[in-house]
Fold this sequence. Notes:
Helix content is 38%, strand content 27%. It is of the alpha/beta class. A six-stranded mixed beta sheet has the order 5-4-3-6-7-10, sandwiched between helices. Strands 1-2-11 form a three-stranded antiparallel beta sheet. A two-stranded antiparallel ribbon has the order 8-9. The longest helix is centred in the last third of the chain and has 19 residues, at 302-320.
Amino acid sequence: MAFAQPLWLFLLLLLPLLIYQYRRAAKRRHVTLQVSRLTAMKGIKTWVVYARNWIQFIRWLVVALIIIAMARPQLLWHEEEIVAESIDIMLVMDISPSMLSKDFRPDRLTVAKEVAASFVSRRPYDQLGLVVFSGGAFTQCPLTNDRRILQAFINNLQVGRLPDGTAIGMGLATAVRHLDKSDSKSKIVLLLTDGENNAGDLGPLTAATAAKALGVRVYTIGIGTDGLVQSPSYQNANGSFAFATRQMTFDTRLLEEMASITDGKFYRARSVSDLEEIYGEIENLEKTKVVTTSVRRTSELFFWFLNTVFCLLLLEMALRWGPLRVITV
Length: 329
């Protein structure tokens, strides 16, 4: 709440002085009645006597409310109109068995899901989707503005839903084909994998060339460490995996070339902090353009004070010409 013309409120400071002067003048106008004993006046004062003494304060309240109304009290409303030039982002995630390797705690896939879900929550104006790949690829979630649905898909990712293998080219091609239907000016792919391409009918470089032709920029992320790692060796009959210590290697040249073709960038994540920093850097590189317009609306409240003034004046008139009426003889 605010006042459009607050200087009128200084008149309220004069009210105590006016009340004091009125009270002094009223005492001089009263007739003094002398009696021999105070008990003689016992029982004479009724509610009418008290009301007549205080009815004048209704007028002072009326004056105060009129001053406040002259100051024009207003209720302020602020609205924000947000115009965002969104970016379409497809997350492409490897769900091959090697993503269960335990050089990350508890494993690579769990960490990748947590960091990706956090990234999604920080992109409130963009459309995001999810493609997963192993020996094949499919769209897990199309482009959407619903963060909760996409995060639910990410959190439910599991190994074993696709044939074994690492079809990087198929994963990228599936995402690019989905982005080709988008009208957004900015389209990017975040591709995360931990292995070398060894499956699929389409090569990664061919898919990267197609992405470049369609204006899609690709950021590739290689997750995992080199050396001896506890990694799945075979799958049991009940669907669980047996682990063994294996020598892990990583072909970074392929991911670097894919990113270079599309004017993107390659990243290597050897720890959880590395992966978080990578998503943070991509977030800074691909900022959404947001324009915010503030709209100020006001609602005038002075008429409420004037309505109260009118009601108080009616009350005073009713009292003065009714039970508090003074008859002069």
